[in-house]
Specification:
Elements (H helix, E strand, L loop, with lengths): L8 E2 L3 H11 L7 E3 L8 H15 L3 E5 L7 H10 L2 E6 L10 H9 L5 E3 L6 H6 L15 H13 L2 H20 L2 H12 L19 H24 L1
Helix pairs in contact: 1-2, 3-4, 6-7, 6-9, 7-8, 7-9, 8-9
Length: 237
């Protein structure tokens, strides 16, 4: 829609980022998300590289972090303070999201309003309630957009019983995503929902194993049924 804000992704390596930054400079995008690069980085190198990309693109970046080894907290805070980074998508997986020393250190230097939880619904309530993060990037909300919006509003308003009720409905599909593949299960779920036919996965990925399709479809249909109560209320307004 005319008010939809789109954030493109660039990278993950420096060469692609630089090529894409020159294209971004000719657009009206307000930020672009830097895809995480595994290995072959240092904090000093990340700081220098992102600074150059911002100079080439003419816009601040959103940094997607999936590992503590990508950039240290002090460097990350400095990039936010300078305006090189507009926001941080935080996606370092923890067995217990509440026990996260890196995130706690980060929030001592970076406003929580600039940090978004980046791992779908699983850690979302902990990240919003206990750490005060601005929001989260949804996973299963791709097929239940009204329900995930209601979950965000409930979490932000402190309606914890309602937030927990909604959250629990997302967990069957989110658990399949965690157990099988975050990307492939969501790809299948969108197809099974009939929102869109996603077609085959492109290499270097492959489709979810056929033996899991029935359980993915079942969880998808249950979440779609739950979504209807929120979609109906939105339509009535």
């Amino acid at each position: 829609g005319p008010d939809t804000r789109v954030i493109p992704a660039i990278g993950p390596d420096y060469g692609k980022m630089l090529d894409q930054a020159r294209i971004l400079a000719q657009t009206s995008y307000r930020t672009a998300m830097v895809l995480p690069l595994g290995g072959f980085t240092t904090s000093e190198g990340v700081e220098a590289g992102l600074t150059r990309i911002v100079e080439a693109a003419g816009i601040p970046l959103t940094l997607y972090i999936k590992s503590e080894n990508y950039v240290d907290v002090d460097t990350l805070a400095r990039l936010v303070d300078r305006g090189t980074l507009l926001a941080v998508k935080y996606a370092i997986v923890r067995d217990n999201p509440s026990d996260d020393a890196y995130l706690r250190r980060l929030l001592q230097s970076v406003p929580a309003a600039k940090v978004v939880s980046g791992m779908g619904e699983r850690p979302a309530l902990v990240h919003v309630r206990e750490f005060g993060l601005a929001a989260w990037t949804t996973g299963s909300g791709c097929i239940a957009s009204h329900a995930v919006t209601a979950l965000l509003h409930a979490a932000k308003s402190g309606s914890m019983d309602e937030a927990q009720r909604i959250y629990d409905e997302f967990m069957p599909l989110e658990t399949l995503r965690d157990d099988i593949s975050l990307i492939r299960v969501l790809h299948d779920a969108v197809t099974f929902s009939k929102i869109a036919d996603m077609g085959p996965m492109l290499p270097l990925l492959s489709s979810s194993p056929l033996e899991h399709h029935a359980s993915i479809d079942q969880a998808t249909q249950a979440l779609l049924a739950f979504e209807q109560q929120f979609a109906g209320a939105a339509a009535a307004r």
